[in-house]
Amino acid sequence: LDGNPLPPEVSAAAQSGLEELLRLLRLLQDEGTPIREAKLVFVGEGKVGKSSLLAAMRGDAFIDGRDTTHGVEIKQVMVGPDGAAWQLNGWDFGGQPEYRPTHQMFFTAPAVYLVVWNPRLGPQLSQVEEWIEMIQLRAGVDVRVHVVATHADTGQRSAGIDEDGLRERFGDMIVDFHHVGSGSGVGIAGLKAAIAATVERTMPQAARLYPASWLRLREAINAGGRPYLPYAGYQALAAEHGLTPTSARSLAITSNVLGHWIYDADDSNLSELVIFKPDWLSVAISFVLDDPATRECAGILAHRRVGDLWNNPSRPADQHYPGVLHAVFLYLMEKFAISYRIAVGPGEEPQSLVAQLVGSVRPDLSDVWEGYGQGLDELVHVCSIVDSDGQPRPLTGVMYQLIVRLHQFSLGRRDHERSRHWQTGIVVDNDYHGRALITVDRARIIVRVRAVYPQFFAVQLTDEIRDQVTAFWQGVDVRIMVPCLTCTSDKPTLFDQEQLRDDRRIGNKEVFCRRCRTPQRIDDLLLRTATSERDDNRLVRVIEEVLTPSFGQIMARVDHNAATVTAAVARGNADIIERVDDLGVELLRAISQAEQGYREFVLSVEESRDGPRLFTAELLEPSLLRPGWTHQRVRVTLWCEHSRLRVRDLNPDGPDGEYTLTVPRDWLVAAAPWLRAAATVLRAVLPMAAAGLDLAAPDVKAWQSTVSTQLDRAAASLDAIGDATAGDRSGMDLEPIGRGGRVELDRGTIQALRHLVAEADPSFAGLRRVASGHSVMWVHPDYLDKYSPPLPEIPTD
Description:
Shape: globular
Number of strands: 26
Strand content: 15-25%
Number of helices: 29
Low-confidence stretches: 529-586, 727-742
Radius of gyration: 29 Å
């Protein structure tokens, strides 16, 4: 499906998993009805005439001095000739700067965008180029843009805009330039005809089949004007219009992916509610962003005040929000990385921090950074944000998102008064893994970490940054750069981490710094990064030499080190920190590599919506492997992707997540490298997984021994497949983990295993699908609160 101009509903269903895709295709086959529909987005600075332009295109009366748009409004526009007209859903976004980080959530493809500007202000003050770049970074290069100058009926011309320069920079994204007058109607007909031609020519998916029952329900919801319904009420309404419960759920899931509705089947706080007007939510958020009291408090929003903001009697009726939704809206703001709940003391009322309203001035950091960790190692990573051509690309609102995403590391996670964050930076802390200063300088995010072993926290932070950036913005990459070790200037030469690794693989040992004119040993540069040696053999050696022999002693040492270092940091006693023994440091190094290996391994299986992806398998009859064998019995074990524990460890009285299956030879040969890698990686993270068990030290040691033996047995039995297929190579070559790098598993192979397990146990032993950042994980119910915390508390007395 990748890379095809799919209808938006088909693409959304595919993102939601194979089952959702198949359900939609069956509906289209059974009741598909033709529609001609697309998305039209109006963007630009405040007061340039976006709302008046939308009204003129709809044929509404012109209103002189129209009120400023709060958030976003959605209204339909018809373009094109009778009999072949297109229905466009026009999204009119408020242009105030404070709305931009929020509005980017709704910039999607496929769509036609109108970048509206006022010739009186000129293209620079109207920020035409900046708006097109924002569209490109969020929605990608496949959308189409019409640049529209307003106020043609005042005689103001748009000769000052550099049309050739914009076309050269943005290429096919730019369709044409227009000059219109919304009051007189000048140029409106031509603009509508040009938009219709753009849809006809560049959006083949806009003319498509759509399930008739879905269409009936959508029309009924639009006609009724309901902004939301409890899920039970939505299901009842859907049944009235001929939808089965399964079809109603599919429509809600698909509409959520497309941004038309808000519904999250994987979140217990949102699965009982369907919000039909995302613009309704956007307006509610705008009231928070515009609130003088919240601004004066540098973004601190007292939950008690949301009733005043969202049920203000002075506002129109359609801008009132029932109290039952207030906690949900606060929760959605957290999900969209707009705010987070801050720590409050006993008896204090709940509050949230709205990240984009934090102060612009860097606070005093003398106590939390300049004076912190004297004598500790400091490591610097520079996350360079570049486009596909390698050019730097600053991102609007990236620090606001990081303040929310990294709040679990905030200095104020226990006492908000200790927080240190501002519009271009934040100080974060991970206890004995160190402390970091993160700042944004245009297209660079600089991460400075101080710790006994700073690589662990540095990789953790750069992974979070890369994930946030690449998941939210399109067409950009995050390159991790490391500074020259001998440059003395404020701007040392930066070396690309991946390029250094590539150079090392082909035998180069040094690179030359042109700034300080000194050769740099690649190993020295890479040792300043946590994944300096992506050497699985070294990882296994550290695990065997450090973690395995005396597990109980090591876990006690970890506890001792954690308490000692935390206490030392609290007292500012650098001497105690420096005396952390070699075993503790080596343990942290092993944990760092094991955690990174686990993350990379699990994420190598992209498709996780239809079922779990973390399995191990052991051959039950390896002696039967012989040329010509067709099937083999295996014992498949299911693991929780959060805790890295076997389901049987978490379900003492329930389903154990172990299944005896008979699998075809071709499947087993294809899956064997991945299954063996799973056993190796899970064995590596056993000590960290053990921390989640509520057992005494001797019992933990016995548990680890049992599970380790099981994983070793599984890996060894899968190795036998290589010998059995040595003279029978219809399967893929087998290469153990650690020799050929990352082991990939195609979607079809994992889907086949899920199907076999689902036949034996459709519940997957009780594992639940949850949203984790921008991906999906399958976790045991014991850990659901880590992904779906309770709704925020709102005082009512």
